[in-house]
C-alpha cells in the first residue's frame, strides 16, 4: 500500500504542473488565433490558417491578417511575457505580495520620460516613445535603489517598497503637472498612458525585442535565488546567496523588462500583479515554476484582453489597459479573499 500511494502523492504536483502547462500553451494558441480572426471585420479561421501557411498578397483578408493583426498579436505576446516576468521578479526580490513594476516606480518613470519626450523633443509616435520610456524606467530603478540602499541594512524589502511607492507618487505627480500645463501634450499622451496594442507593429517591437529576450532569459535563471530570498535575508545569506547583489540584479531585470514593455505598449496595470498569484495555484511556491508559468500566462491574458477590447466597442475599440484593469481588479480581490496572496 505504501509503495503504491507514495508515487501517487509525489506525482500529484508534477501532474498538476504538466496539465497546467499544457492548458496555458493551448490557451495561448487559441487566443492568438482569435486575435488574428477577430477585429473590425471578423475573418474565418480557415482563412487565417491559409494566410499563415499560403500567403496571397492579392487577398485583402490575408493582408489584414499578416500585415496588421499578426504584428499586433506578437507585440501582445512579447509585452505580456515581459510584464509577467517583471511582476514575478518584483514580488520575489521585495518579498511583497503586492509588488509590481508600478509599486517600484518603474512604470511611472517611463511615463514621465515619455511626457518629457513629447513636451521637450516633440515626440508624437509610439516608435519615438521607445527610448524615452526605456531610459525613464532605468532611471527610476536606479533612483529607487539608491534611496533604499541608504542606511546600515541596505536595500531591504520594506525599504524598496517604500522607496518605490514614494518615487512612483513623485513621478506621477510631475507627469500630471506637465500634462495639465500643456494641452497638446495631454492629447498626445492620453492614448498611450492607459496602455494599448492598437497601431503597434514591428517598428515598435523590434527595437525593444532584444531587451525583452535577454531580460526574460536572465529572469528565468533566478528561480532558485528567489526561492532562497523567500526564506529571509539571514537564511539566504547563510545558504550562500549574496543578498544585496541578487536584489540589484533582480531590480535591473525588472527595469529592463518593464521599461521595454511600457515603451512598446504604454503602462498596463495589474498584469504583473495578478498573474504570479494566479499561477501559484498551479505551481505552488517554487519560483522556478512561477517564472516559467507567468510568462505564457501573462501573454495569454494580455492577448485575450486585446481581443475583448476590439469587440466591446465596435466599430471602435477600447484600450487594452482598461480591459486588463477591469479583469484584473476583481480577480485580484478574489485571490486575496481566498488567501492566495497572503504570503509568498
Automatic annotation (TrEMBL):
Cross-referenced CDD domains: TM_ABC_iron-siderophores_like
Similarity annotation: Belongs to the binding-protein-dependent transport system permease family. FecCD subfamily.
Pfam families reported for this sequence: FecCD
Key word Membrane present: yes
Taxonomic placement: Bacteria, Bacillati, Actinomycetota, Actinomycetes, Micrococcales
Cell membrane listed as a keyword: yes
This protein's UniProt keywords: Cell membrane, Membrane, Transmembrane, Transmembrane helix, Transport
Name by which UniProt lists this protein: Iron ABC transporter permease
Compartment(s) where it occurs, according to its Swiss-Prot or TrEMBL record: Cell membrane
Highest taxon in the source lineage: Bacteria
Membrane topology: Multi-pass membrane protein
UniProt xrefs under InterPro entries: ABC_BtuC-like, ABC_transptr_permease_BtuC
Transmembrane segments annotated in the record for this chain: 21-41, 70-90, 102-123, 129-148, 160-181, 201-222, 252-275, 287-308, 320-337
Amino acid at each position: 500500500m505504501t509503495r503504491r500511494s507514495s508515487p501517487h502523492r509525489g506525482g500529484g504536483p508534477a501532474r498538476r504542473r504538466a496539465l497546467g502547462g499544457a492548458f496555458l500553451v493551448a490557451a495561448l494558441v487559441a487566443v492568438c488565433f482569435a486575435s488574428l480572426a477577430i477585429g473590425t471585420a471578423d475573418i474565418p479561421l480557415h482563412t487565417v490558417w491559409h494566410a499563415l501557411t499560403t500567403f496571397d498578397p492579392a487577398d485583402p483578408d490575408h493582408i489584414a491578417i499578416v500585415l496588421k493583426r499578426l504584428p499586433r498579436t506578437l507585440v501582445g505576446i512579447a509585452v505580456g511575457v515581459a510584464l509577467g516576468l517583471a511582476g514575478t521578479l518584483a514580488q520575489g526580490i521585495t518579498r511583497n505580495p503586492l509588488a509590481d513594476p508600478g509599486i517600484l516606480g518603474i512604470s511611472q518613470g517611463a511615463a514621465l520620460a515619455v511626457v518629457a519626450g513629447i513636451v521637450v523633443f516633440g515626440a508624437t509616435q509610439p516608435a519615438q516613445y521607445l527610448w524615452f520610456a526605456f531610459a525613464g524606467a532605468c532611471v527610476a530603478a536606479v533612483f529607487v535603489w539608491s534611496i533604499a540602499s541608504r542606511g546600515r541594512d541596505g536595500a531591504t524589502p520594506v525599504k524598496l517598497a517604500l522607496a518605490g511607492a514614494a518615487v512612483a507618487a513623485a513621478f506621477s505627480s510631475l507627469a500630471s503637472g506637465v500634462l495639465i500645463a500643456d494641452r497638446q501634450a495631454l492629447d498626445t499622451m492620453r492614448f498611450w498612458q492607459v496602455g494599448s496594442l492598437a497601431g503597434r507593429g514591428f517598428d515598435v517591437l523590434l527595437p525593444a525585442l532584444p531587451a525583452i529576450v535577454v531580460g526574460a532569459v536572465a529572469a528565468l535563471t533566478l528561480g532558485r535565488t528567489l526561492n532562497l530570498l523567500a526564506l529571509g535575508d539571514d537564511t539566504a545569506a547563510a545558504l550562500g546567496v549574496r543578498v544585496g547583489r541578487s536584489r540589484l540584479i533582480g531590480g535591473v531585470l525588472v527595469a529592463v523588462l518593464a521599461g521595454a514593455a511600457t515603451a512598446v505598449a504604454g503602462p498596463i496595470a495589474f498584469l504583473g500583479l495578478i498573474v504570479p498569484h494566479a499561477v501559484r495555484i498551479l505551481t505552488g511556491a517554487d519560483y522556478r515554476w512561477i517564472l516559467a508559468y507567468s510568462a505564457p500566462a501573462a501573454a495569454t491574458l494580455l492577448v485575450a484582453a486585446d481581443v475583448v477590447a476590439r469587440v466591446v466597442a465596435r466599430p471602435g475599440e477600447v484600450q487594452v489597459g482598461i480591459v486588463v484593469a477591469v479583469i484584473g481588479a476583481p480577480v485580484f480581490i478574489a485571490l486575496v479573499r481566498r488567501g492566495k496572496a497572503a504570503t509568498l
